[in-house]
Amino acid sequence: MPLSDEVRDALDIIDTQVAAFLPHDDRVASACRTLRAQVPGTVACSAIPWLPRLLPLPAQRVGTVIAPIFDLLEAIAAGARDPWPVIAAMLAARDSALQRRALDALVRACASGVLRLTPEITGTLADRVDDEGSAIADDAAVQQVGLVLDATAAESLFEHGGTWNARRLGARVLDLGGSPPDPALMARILGAGAVAMLGRYLAFTRATHQDVLDIQPLAADPAALDSFRRAEQVCGRRTLREVVAALGWRRLNLGIEVHPLVGVSVSGGFPLVLAPVEARLFDGCPDVRRAFDRTLVVAVGARPEDSRVAAKSDAVTRFRAYNVVHAEVLADILDVAPLDRSKLRRILTRMDRLVEDFAALFGGTADRGSRDEAAALVRVHADLAARIDRALAGTSADLLPLDVCRLVQPFEDPT
Asked: Average pLDDT over the chain, rounded to whole?
């Protein structure tokens, strides 16, 4: 359905003002009133042809310019037969007060029966709750979620949620009641063997459903469980349970080590920190004093993440490593020392990695220019490497001739 000139003008005004450095809130409010007049009391969101242009806007900026747009979306959601696309856009708002209003809208839609929770809805809600700086991450907001997510649904989400964020939301809702996790539920998630081994520590720390999620990497890794068992043998159950309670499960869910240490002072000097077997070598020595006995605990833990978060983290790690290799190969290329075969192979190996990393980082982006640049880089590098190999085949000297040097260390275009 073609849009009327009045609607097109209103949409253009909204787009222009949202993108402006100093927007005019009154113009946006007037344009929103124009659009509101085009919406009947009850309507399907799919029947509003201009609605998709408004949905991304709450996530784009903060400030009073977004308020009339949000008011319009809220009014549409209240009368829509399929309000989820609008509520999803509202939940993505960057303004804290608007996020809380979006959650209220979701609760009202679910309570009225207009909206039924689906994996898509709970997944999106869980992501918004888990966003950094989210205004709907506090206990009061989770209690609102609990109004539409009953105990059965929350337990199902906790156990079978498609993402870590969704499972974490289910755990938070279940923890609202203050009851510990059901032993049968823990056995299904962690495994009967892990629960049997960790049971006394789970009871001592009054582990919550969120703790069970944090423990899952520990329970799933035999090496991590073995480290926990060895720690118990070294320091005893009483000490280890105090350690677990002090650290929290998330800080040790990848493994734990316990090392007894002895401080030995010689002639009143600063104590040497030794293992017990080493400290025994000083037994009977004159002017040697045992200063202290301590236990060093080394724990490794991490928050379980969704695959998309891990992928993002992998990309960041790869980009950092890319920069390090880039600096190393630049130092080799600019080095004034003669180019020999060892240095050449080092440069080529690093360049292969740089090109591979660049293609992996930017070859799959949404930007067509970046994809084309990555593809061109791969082609040019492959051609240049082939030319270097052909040039190398013509010489057996360790110090390489000028034509090879011009290809590897070009201070001018090697073509």
From this structure: 87
Closest CA to 253 of 317, 301, 194: 301
* pLDDT confidence of residue 366: 63
Answer whether residue 412 shows pLDDT above 70. Answer: no
Confidence of residue 313 (pLDDT cuts 50, 70, 90): low
20-35 pLDDT, tens digit per residue, is: 888 999 999 999 999 9
* pLDDT of the residue at 309: 47
Question: SS3 letters for the chain?
Answer: CCCCHHHHHHHHHHHHHHHCCCCCHHHHHHHHHHHHCCCCCCECHHHCCCHHHHCCHHHCCCCHHHHHHHHHHHHHHHHECCCHHHHHHHHCCCCHHHHHHHHHHHHHHHHHCCCCCCHHHHHHHHHHHHCCCCCCCCHHHHHHHHHHCCHHHHHHHHHHCCCHHHHHHHHHHHHCCCCCCCHHHHHHHHCHHHHHHHHHHHHHCCCCHHHHHHHHHHHHCHHHHHHHHHHHHHHHHHHHHHHHHHHCHHHHCCEEEEEEEEEEEECCCCCEEECHHHHHHHCCCCCEEEEEEEEEEEEECCCCCCHHHHHHHHHHHHHHHHHHHHHHHHHHHHCCCCCEHHHHHHHHHHHHHHHHHHHHHHCCCCCHHHHHHHHHHHHHHHHHHHHHHHHHHCCCCCECCHHHHHHHCCCCCCC
Report the pLDDT value the prediction gives residue 395, as an integer from 0 to 100.
76
The Cβ of residue 403 has, within 10 Å, a number of other Cβ atoms equal to: 13
Picking from 306, 314, 250, the residue whose alpha carbon sits closest to that of residue 127 is 306
Share of the chain above pLDDT 90, in %: 54
**pLDDT score of 245 more than 80:** yes
